[in-house]
Amino acid sequence: MTWLTEPFEFAFFRHGVMVATMAGALCGLIGVYVTLRGMSYIGHGLSHAIFGGAAASALVGFNFYLGAGLWGMASALAIGRVTRRRIIGSDAAIGVITTASFAFGIALLGLYGQVRTSIDAAIFGSVLGVTAADVWVVAGVTLAAGAVVFAFYRKLLFTTFDPEVADVSGVNTARMDALLMLLLSVSILATMKVLGVVLIAAILVIPPVVARMLTNSFARMLWLSTLVGALCGFVGMILSFHLDVSSGATIVLVGAAVFAVVFAVTGPGGRRQAAGLDAHDAPVGAGRPGR
Question: Is-contact 208 28, C-beta < 8 A?
């Protein structure tokens, strides 16, 4: 068992494994709403948008997290605003806004070489850069996200499955959309040191899909996705230490392995459930949010 306990002798690894476990749980929780709304591409898109903000912040010497966070939140709100006008789909809105931001970041990298070293770790993830302060930040964001989901559970559920009816019924769907985008942006920002912005999209999608293949209950899907995400973070960090591979890449590969196993074990039934994610299957609990 020394292979399991050996990494914990190092303070940087203890910090990293705590952040990775909480990051996986956080992304698994938020990812349920993102995936069920057919916006799986949003995590990928927002990570690219944050890349642009990170490059700009590094260039002007502004606080990295504050600058990238504000940029990401602004992009998320812009996506929600464009999508609500229903002129174009959410995937098109994400593509236009986030790729423009990513291109801006690439342009800055080309013009100012000193920007590159400042943001490489954020792009690909690096456990060496995780500090005790990062642990507290991710813990705070995770607890806050859990509290928001608990407080607005029914409104978020209603908005996810039937936004038109929710709007008519008195639910402020615009506010719920903005709240979800805010949670997503903060989650990406808080977890990118371990996962890297390039790979965050995968850990936002894999745990919810795995959970969806295992249950028809929305409530169970929430905690199963959170558990799967946390497990991927914990196991991925240990493997990344022994294999000397990027923490973000290893966590995602563990998630992919879990998906492959569940996909094979659940058979056609689980596959039909997963295929129904973007179709907003009613059996997931739209009519019975307390299930």
Answer: yes
Q: How many degrees, rounded to 5, is the angle at CA 58 between CA 57 and CA 62?
A: 50
* 238 Cα distance to chain centroid: 21
Residue 273 near residue 221 (C-beta atoms within 8 A)? no
Count how many Cα atoms sit within 13 Å of the Cα of residue 290 in the half-sphere of its side chain: 0
Put residue 63 in one of left, alpha, beta given phi > 0 → left and psi -120 to 50 → alpha: beta
CA dihedral sign, ordered 247, 252, 253, 257: positive
Domain covering 2-284 assigned CATH 1.10.3470.10 in the classification: yes
**Phi then psi dihedrals of residue 244, to 5 deg:** 55, 50
pLDDT: which is higher, 85 or 55: 55
- What are the angstrom distances between the C-alpha of 11 and each of 14, 33, 104, 128, 131? 5, 34, 36, 10, 9
Ordered by start, the domain boundaries in the chain are 2-284
Distance of CA 106 to the CA centre of its chain: 22
CA 268, 273, 275, 281: dihedral to nearest 10 degrees? 150
CA gap 189, 27 in Å, rounded: 11
- Is pLDDT of 196 > 80? no
pTM of this structure: 0.78
